[in-house]
Amino acid sequence: MTPEGDVLSDNPRFVDIHCHMLPGLDDGPVNLGVSLAMAEIAVADGIQAVIVTPHQLGTYGRNRGATIRAFADRFQSELQQREIALRVLPGADVRIEPDLVSRLEAGEVLTLADRRRHVLLELPHELYLPLEGLLRRLDAAGIVGILSHPERNQGLLREPQLVADLVDAGCLMQVTAGSLVGSFGGQIRDFAASLIEEGLVHFVATDAHGTTCRRPRMSAAFERIVGLAGDRYAEELCSANPAAIAAGRDIAGGRRRRARFRPCGWFPRRRAS
């Protein structure tokens, strides 16, 4: 495991905590060439570090923690050989199963950045399953749950008030960058925007799977958040909070106070280089 101080610079650019960039493990890139192309897209868009999160459990039960760690190490070596300036850390996009907590404690199922502090939880897309019991079991094990793309879950779209209930119960929320800019349709775009405006989101991540329709890009979503809720919240969701997760540090949970702040001409807005 990489020491905390070696993970990111003191002033990170974008950090992506949910990205399917490892080749051949799930429905992400089919080979190393596509993975490398994704890495180049990410760097060009201003992403400094990625937690690579192949699916675990569910239909991807064959993906073991040791396998993902080895693939992440190998991919980092490939990036360094090609001088692609992207930091890679192991993690997983974890389908919820009954024995999840024990498998996390054993290290078989990966936490984000392999820090044993935060786990990325994936619900079935078509329905919502109550999570309060799981959140309590995770808390007892010293692990915090982060729900991936709540704005794309059909059950939560039908009952949006459940998101606030989950946040109040200690769950952290990760919205997909593409959702904010309409990549998944207008209903999901508007739901994602409402979650931002209500202060119910803690992270924005790409959930990238390739180089075409689901690419590892954050900058357009960052600009959208600036318009919805201001620079400070955009920095928190796209940089500060995900950087803390990559380093194994806690962040403040709960609802964020809503505050609109629009930069004046003298206040430099983040731009991807």
- Share of helical residues: 25-40%
Rounded to an integer in angstroms, the radius of gyration calculated over CA atoms is 17 Å
Overall mean pLDDT score? Answer: 91
Q: Can you tell me the CATH superfamily?
A: Metal-dependent hydrolases
Account of the 3D structure:
- This protein is an alpha/beta fold and 273 residues long.
- It has a single domain, classed as TIM Barrel.
- 37% of the residues lie in helices and 14% in strands.
- It has helices at 32-44, 65-81, 100-105, 132-140, 154-158, 161-168, 177-180, 186-197, 219-229, 231-246, and strands at residues 14-19, 47-52, 55-56, 87-90, 93-95, 118-122, 144-148, 172-176, 203-205.
- Strands 3-5-6-7-8-9 form a six-stranded parallel β-sheet. Strands 1-2-4 form a three-stranded parallel β-sheet.
- Helix 4 links the parallel strand 6 and strand 7.
